[in-house]
Amino acid sequence: MAETEKRIETHRIRCLSKLKMFLLAITCAFVSKTLSGSYMNSMLTQIERQFNIPTFLVGFINGSFEIGNLLLIIFVSYFGTQLHRPILIGVGCVVMGVGCFLQSLPHFLMDRYEYESTVSVSGNLSSNSFLCMENGTQIFRPTEDPSDCVKEVKSLMWVYVLVGNIIRGIGETPIMPLGISYIEDFAKSENSPLYIGFVETGAIIGPLIGLLLASFCANVYVDTGSVNTDDLTITPTDTRWVGAWWFGFLICAGVNVLTAIPFFFLPKMLPKEGLKNNADIIKNDKKEKQKEEVKKEKDGITKDFLPFMKSLLCNPIYMLFILISIVQFNAFVNMFTFMPKYLEQQYGKSASDAIFLIGIYNLPPICIGYIAGGLIMKKFKITVKQAAHIGCWLSLIEYLLHFLCFLMICDNSSVAGITTTYKGMQQDLYVGNTILADCNRDCNCPTKTWDPVCGNNGVSYMSACLAGCETSVGTGINMVFQNCSCIQTSGNSSAVLGLCDKGHDCSMMLQYFLILSAIGSFIYSLSAIPGYMVLLSWNSCTYIFWSFSGFHMFTLGNFEMW
């Protein structure tokens, strides 16, 4: 008798340790998958500049992850519980690693990145051929045909990024549904929320690490190590700058592959956590065998799967939860995806600073919102129906709140000949050919090249030549242009590389925008906990994550009617 009890106790300890091993492994998997996702979203502007592709194509590349996820999610979620779930999750992590590696591959297959400039990076800077030269022979007139301004894709290597992102979406498919269902099947009912809380913590830590990694990589030049960065004439704040986007993908690939290793050593099934005696163990084993027999008796998708889907779509609570998901992902997630580019173009921030600000202002409110939402649900004992309504209204408020962001804008940069006359007066963007003026008409300047300089009068110019500058001192980014005839100021007129700062008013608008986004992040996370309550109200056998173009659906079944 004593030997039997000892064996049961040993079996229980082994079960608990393996369950906790799985909990640690799935938490790391959540960290790795959200790390890769947040890094990908943060590098969209760098990828756009590297391949010189239009923004709509960037959006398609970003959405390709959902395409990959959509291809398998329904089948993996529904039939995955019949297979070895830990191994499926491990294979998914490896596939994600392969996808991340594939995304970094174009950097090693392409030539070095070359940005548009009037100043030659490798040429003889002492010749001053890029300055105002009255006896010059080369001149470019402004383009009159709008079609000439359309981007020409430099390389089709962006297809690697697209395919890699699809593969990453395919690999991510089994992690969430099979991981959560595994915990629900073998953990105590009272311990399950705590374990899922640990997993969700990993989903918060991952984006934090991803944003920090993206901030670092965006500040490093894309071809660092193969070019002399001292000769560069652009800085990270320049719209032509491309950071080392490929480096972070290699790190994400390594992290995903390492995360997969523990799953291959975990068992297909575990005894239910907390069983007290041998009879319970035997009873639990019988139940598991009965479940397997029932699954084997199902003779096809039309007999069980389609009726199950029909019952879900006819449930009002489920459909309300779908509405919550649509509103949330079309407001918060889509804006969060393109926020780095928006901060760069609207407020003149570098990609590195933009990504860092997003992490600082948005992740802490999300963490606080998760905690506050959980406390509210526990204190007021919110029911499933109440949780669905709360989540829906909070999501709607957060969605409407994002429209206020359109009010937090800055004025256009003062660029002579485009938004401002050479005399300093504001003008419309499309007022005809005003790029050339009396002060630079005889300089034989290229007028199709964007290589901005900032004059000491606070006005930007398309190039040092169009500013009428005749001499220069220094090299690289430290170059200073002097004797600029178009810069009207007392004393010596000079200019430096780069656009002028947008000023204090724009900085204040940036602060308002970030505060508003922080409030939106808090409301988003506050509504997420009621959403999870609706999600987990179904007995966890099936999880369906249907996502395409910002449309996501979450489901756990077997289905129950209210």
Automatic annotation (TrEMBL):
It comes from the Eukaryota. Belongs to the organo anion transporter (TC 2.A.60) family. Residues 433-488 form the Kazal-like domain. Residues 272-304 form a coiled coil. GO terms for biological process: monoatomic ion transport; sodium-independent organic anion transport. It is found in: Cell membrane. InterPro entries: Kazal_dom (IPR002350), Kazal_dom_sf (IPR036058), MFS_trans_sf (IPR036259), OATP (IPR004156). Its main location: membrane. PROSITE patterns: KAZAL_2. It holds the Pfam family OATP. The lineage of its organism: Eukaryota, Metazoa, Chordata, Craniata, Vertebrata. This is Solute carrier organic anion transporter family member. Gene3D superfamilies: 3.30.60.30, MFS general substrate transporter like domains. One of its GO terms (cellular component) is basolateral plasma membrane. It is a multi-pass membrane protein. One of its GO terms (molecular function) is bile acid transmembrane transporter activity. The keyword Disulfide bond applies. Keywords: Cell membrane, Coiled coil, Disulfide bond, Glycoprotein, Ion transport, Membrane, Transmembrane, Transmembrane helix, Transport. The chain crosses the membrane at residues 21-40, 60-80, 87-105, 157-183, 195-222, 242-266, 317-339, 354-376, 388-409, 509-529, 541-559. SUPFAM superfamilies: Kazal-type serine protease inhibitors (SSF100895), MFS general substrate transporter (SSF103473).
